[in-house]
Design brief:
The complex is a heterodimer of chains A (338) and B (313). Chain A is of the alpha/beta class. In chain A, 30% of the residues lie in helices and 22% in strands. Chain A has 11 helices and 12 strands. In chain A, the strands form 2 sheets. Chain A has an 8-stranded mixed β-sheet, sandwiched between helices. A 4-stranded antiparallel β-sheet of chain A has the order 2-1-4-5. The longest helix of chain A is centred in the middle third of the chain and has 18 residues, at 194-211. Chain B has an 8-stranded mixed β-sheet with strand order 4-5-6-1-7-8-10-9, sandwiched between helices. Chain B has a two-stranded antiparallel sheet with strand order 2-3. The longest helix of chain B has 16 residues, at 164-179. Classes of the chains: A alpha/beta (338), B alpha/beta (313). At the A-B interface, α6, α7, α8 and α9 of A face α7, α8, α9 and α10 of B.
């Protein structure tokens, strides 16, 4: 397993980051063997910031999100929130910290009791953490509903009575109940129609502006991530292959995988052009036996001998905030800058 | 789904676009006569190469299905049989519709696997579907659909379950088949997919066609307020360094079939709706390059709106 010493430090100089993940490893033991779903990932999220995490299925982005909340136990690595180390803490010791860290899922009610009313669902986190008296909790529920654009009478209804977009509003309200500093959003708009997706993305934008909450926004959809993220990490087979501020990444993607991903996105703004893109050939390698060296080398159009046996670590190329794990990435030449 | 008319030419892709519940998948099932009671297709005709499919009995329809018109679904495992090898399934499909020897069917199956760019087809021929990735499975399904050289391929969200790099490969493959003269009906919720791969676009809302145009025209000058909303609601390439932009929302949600509003079904969500819009369903207006169903379309076509490609026919 790799132990990349590089840490993504985007907000260096602005004090401690809100979330700092260092060299996190998550393993799954399956009948077919061990999978390193997350293999030595380091990242930070600043206060009030949105870090977008993109990658295709099986890249480990959802596992990473769940491991940060300790919904999955990491095998090794450190997770610090607000300077406090979450790793190795017992469930009970974790509870006060967990208030600051919440999650929004693609299907907000997959794991919840469908017989509960929306009001009960929203009050439950408050109840668990012993916050407020009954009447205060009721007021808080009404506040939360208003916050996410739902009427007060929604409290007495059941989730199944709502549309997909409204259900996601309820899921967001539940995540906000404890006034968290960071919300991990795992594909929050992927199941929604485009018109409703826009409503939810605008809502998340409003909440960040008004409440200063930070988001770790996990998505397979690059256009959604470009819209919402301040910084972006690109994952491939359990590792971060590139990370940069949003504008820098789209201006000059450095990793061949990032470029292939960008090329593959259907672009509405250039509909007439039949783009001649270098489509990635082949499939994702098996997670049970990831390729040696750079994990992307089996699909990479540029791979050289070195890529087959030496794993590249994240390094800055030019811009100190723009890190890439590729042996071949070079600093921008003068002609690029011109 | 009501009063839907459209055509697909050889070597053309018609995209049917809409959000969940708009009736686009029902349209696909109707094309193939795959309704389960109490569902049923009524109407003037579904003509394929001059023949009316609505007049055919179940036997004749089954023959057309697979031989002249074939279908690819979102989830390849709905089509594939998990206990048979890839090869057996393609051979079976060929021999279902044609009297050919097992050997000839096998040769054709291998050619089909090559045609959909499955690497190492001889080895894949003997493998079961679960050994393949999602993208490879979808290629196998397309190979089965091509088994009898259909004139029309109906693809219902063929790439929705796939990763974006694999999606690009499958869409390129469908384009390649279209170049061979096949007509394609591509059903999707994703306007981005349409922009690169369809010649014409039909936008559906609440079971009706609201706009049908050449793809380039639709994206340059969308006319129906719903089409405009769909295009505007998509996140766009952002300008450097700017604030996070607001996305254009379409307020509310799609009406349920049980509670369809009177008049134009989109009126309750439409910023441009007038009282007239809530009275009668707007008729389809013919344009030089297509059709649109909106009472206010005359206003958009006024000279002040300067839409160069669009004129009432």
């Amino acid at each position: 397993m790799s132990a990349s010493p590089d840490t993504v430090r985007p907000d260096a100089g602005q004090g401690d980051p809100l979330l700092a993940v260092e060299d996190l490893v998550v393993r799954y033991d399956t009948p077919q063997g061990v999978v390193h779903a997350v293999d030595g990932v380091s990242l930070t999220v600043g206060r009030g910031e949105t870090l977008g995490l993109v990658g295709e299925s099986g890249c480990g982005k959802s596992t990473l999100g769940r491991a940060i909340l300790r919904l999955i136990e990491p095998a090794s690595g450190r997770i610090r929130l607000d300077g406090e180390d979450l790793s190795g803490k017992s469930r009970a010791a974790l509870r006060p910290i967990r208030r600051k860290l919440q999650m929004v899922f693609q299907d907000p009610f997959g794991s919840l009791d469908p017989r509960w009313t929306v009001g009960q669902l929203l009050a439950e986190p408050l109840h668990v953490h012993g916050i407020g008296r009954r009447s205060e909790r009721r007021d808080r529920v009404i506040d939360l509903l208003a916050r996410v654009g739902l009427p007060a009478d929604a409290a007495s209804r059941h989730p199944h009575e709502f549309s997909g977009g409204q259900r996601q509003r309820i899921g967001i309200a539940r995540a906000l109940a404890l006034s968290p500093a960071l919300v991990v959003c795992d594909e929050p708009v992927s199941a929604l129609d485009v018109s409703v997706q826009a409503q939810i993305l605008n809502l998340l934008d409003d909440l960040q502006r008004d409440l200063g909450v930070a988001f770790l926004f996990i998505s397979h959809d690059l256009s959604v991530v470009e819209h919402i993220a301040d910084r972006v990490g690109v994952m491939y087979l359990g590792r971060i292959v590139e990370t940069a501020p949003r504008a820098a990444l789209w201006r000059r993607p450095l990793h061949p995988y990032t470029r292939a991903l960008f090329d593959a996105v259907p672009d509405l703004d250039r509909p007439a052009e039949r783009r001649t893109r270098a489509a990635l050939t082949g499939d994702l390698p098996s997670a049970f036996a990831p390729p040696a060296g750079c994990r992307f080398h089996t699909r990479c159009p540029l791979a050289v001998e070195r890529c087959r046996h030496e794993a590249p670590s994240l390094r800055a190329v030019g811009d100190p905030d723009h890190l890439v794990a590729c042996h071949l990435a070079e600093p921008p030449s003068k002609t690029d800058l011109a | 789904m009501r009063n839907l008319s459209f055509q697909v030419a050889r070597g053309e892709t018609l995209a049917i676009v809409g959000e969940s519940g708009c009736g686009k998948s029902i349209t696909a099932l109707a094309l193939l006569g795959l309704f389960q009671p109490p569902g049923r297709a009524e109407g003037k005709a579904i003509r394929l190469e001059g023949r009316n499919l609505l007049g055919l009995g179940p036997e004749a329809l089954r023959d057309v299905r697979g031989r002249r018109i074939a279908m690819v679904f979102q989830e390849p495992m709905t089509t594939l049989n998990p206990v048979l090898t890839i090869g057996e399934q393609i051979v079976e499909t060929i021999r279902d519709h044609e009297t050919v020897s097992r050997r000839e069917a096998r040769d054709r199956a291998l050619t089909l696997l090559e045609r959909v760019h499955i690497p190492d087809p001889v080895r894949r021929f003997g493998e079961h579907p679960h050994r393949l990735s999602g993208g490879m499975r979808q290629r196998v399904v397309i190979a089965m659909a091509l088994a009898c050289n259909p004139a029309v391929l109906v693809a219902d969200e063929p790439t929705t379950a796939l990763d974006v790099t694999i999606q690009a490969q499958i869409l390129d493959l469908i384009d390649e088949l279209k170049q061979g003269g096949m007509g394609v009906v591509l059903i999707t919720h994703d306007l981005g997919v349409v922009a690169g791969h369809a010649e014409r676009v039909l936008v559906m809302y609440a079971g009706r066609k609201v706009e049908e145009r050449a793809a380039t025209d639709l994206f340059a000058t969308p006319l129906h307020p719903y089409t405009r909303g769909l295009i505007a609601a998509r996140p766009r390439r952002r300008v450097e360094g700017g604030e996070r932009p607001r996305l254009v929302e379409i307020p509310g949600t799609v009406p349920s079939l049980a509670a369809m509003p009177p008049g134009c079904a989109f009126a309750p969500r439409c910023a441009l709706a007038t009282e007239d819009c809530t009275v009668a369903e707007p008729p389809l207006t013919s344009l030089e390059d297509g059709q649109v169903a909106c009472l206010r379309v005359g206003d958009f076509l006024a000279p002040s709106h300067s839409l160069p490609h669009v004129r009432l026919a």
